[in-house]
Amino acid sequence: MSVNIQLDQPHAHFTNLDFITGKVILTILNNETIAAIVVKLEGESKTCLAVSQLPPQEQLAQALGPRGRHHAELEVHKLLYKFATVFPAEHVQRAAPENSSYTLPAGQYEYPFRFKIPFNNDCHNNSLFANSNNVAGLLGEIARATSRHVKTTLPPSLSGLPGQAEIRYFVKVTVQRPAFYKENFRATATFNYLPIEPPRGPENRRESYARRQHQFAPKIDVPPKPGLFRRESAPSSSTSVVPPSIMLDSRLPDPAIVNCNEPLPLRILITKLNDSSATIYLQMLNVELIGHTHIRAHQLQRTDSVSWVIMSASNLRMPLGSRDISGPGRDMEVDAKLWNQIPIPNTVAPSFETCNLTRYYSLDIKVGLSYGSPSIINPELTIQTLRMPVKVYSGIAPPPELLARMSDQWPAQAEAQPQPQASSYTPTPGPSQAFHPPQQSSQPGQFTPPQTLPQDLPPSYEDAVGNDYGPVDGPRRDYHLQPQRASYPGADEKGSGGSGADERLFPDSGRS
């Protein structure tokens, strides 16, 4: 006997309100007695951390604890759990007595199924199913029950953190046989899931930005050593150029949201703060999206980072502005053609938060600048780094009927709030209503997600969603799971490692 699942896949990935349809194909070579055939739609979030994977100071704290240094924790949340009995039929189940079984002759049988993907997770009610048959690899740690649950939109499929974290969605079929000495037959079919983007607020002209100021140093002319046959050189013309003082801004629409598989709506502005006739030159530009994944397995926690290079260019020697821009307070904008044709890689998952995993992003922009005259460029090169917290959305718009229903619940005071104009920026740094500075921790290279949220948030889908809404009829972004990364100690956090025959992060789970 063998059993397989054949999924109907009209899209490369599924999203909320989609119907998961397919059929179970059961092949029997001899007469078989079967109690039932149950199909399940499941989604689970697994995290596994060992004490050796924590920062040194936390390793010491755990080593002094009751469980010691060499233990691991496994936390599993059953985000989605639906089931349907496809055999026997519903009317047969009602008429048959309890614990009935049925004998099927040899042949091939097909049983269709259909599930609808909801909006929110439901791991609080499914915690009983999450802790069975889950073991943390070679360390033999069994998943313990947890009381911390966060009810949010179902998070996207996630990979790329081997042995540490994984979010997967799948359809599983179980052929139940009544004899205790006969093993049940099972089959699993996984699929990629990308959520509908959260509801957005009303359009405005505000901009989020990060800002830095820099003062170029004056050029130091080293006089040549006198020689017997060396003619005295004329004074350099660049010595008369006043070194510019500049303000560098990176701006995104407020709130700072970017879409999966779309170019960045980024603007980079440079403003002169003093009266200098020098020409500013763009020498290099590097735009990088950094994803931070906060992993929690009971009392063990760590944050893992991975980056995607959106664009990188050097030796540009690109003059900014025109020659008549010499006074202070004049903005010079970097040509957006350097990045506005490059989409975000299709392996970037949307920002999300679930019970044991959180993914948030920051945009890292490195700008290399120099100054000089049209004929001579000062050799001084300054590289300024700007970092902005951003949210990544899937770009899958909710159904118009759902948005229309949610607009009725939108607070009336949101429309009455004054909207600041984007033209109100001045070259002097200072806070404003549209100012969202990047929040950096005391340790270099780390980033703390913003803790403050706007007060005019839109209502959640839970407040307005109904079962009568159909699947999304609109464009869908391309999305693929991130390739496996090296999991051995000392592996490069920004690189990718080779993958084995089984690309799942927990290859031994779900096969019992």
Structure description:
With 512 residues, the protein is mostly beta strands. Helix content is 6%, strand content 37%. It has helices at residues 56-63, 90-95, 127-130, 400-407, 413-416, and strands at residues 2-8, 19-28, 32-34, 36-50, 72-87, 102-104, 107-116, 135-136, 141-142, 158-161, 165-176, 185-191, 207-215, 245-253, 257-259, 267-272, 279-297, 300-313, 318-320, 331-333, 352-353, 357-372, 382-393. Strands 15, 17, 18, 19, 21, 22 and 23 form a seven-stranded mixed β-sheet that branches. A hairpin with a 3-residue loop joins strand 21 and strand 22 (357-372). The chain is elongated. Residues 135-140, 412-458, 486-503 and 507-512 have low confidence and may be disordered.
In a few lines, what is going on in this structure?
It is built from five helices and 23 strands. It is mainly β and 512 residues long. It is elongated and about 110 Å long.
Annotate the secondary structure layout.
Blueprint: E1 2-8, E2 19-28, E3 32-34, E4 36-50, H1 56-63, E5 72-87, H2 90-95, E6 102-104, E7 107-116, H3 127-130, E8 135-136, E9 141-142, E10 158-161, E11 165-176, E12 185-191, E13 207-215, E14 245-253, E15 257-259, E16 267-272, E17 279-297, E18 300-313, E19 318-320, E20 331-333, E21 352-353, E22 357-372, E23 382-393, H4 400-407, H5 413-416
Parallel strand pairs: 15-23
Antiparallel strand pairs: 1-2, 2-7, 3-6, 4-5, 4-11, 8-9, 10-11, 11-12, 13-14, 14-16, 16-20, 17-18, 17-19, 17-22, 21-22, 22-23
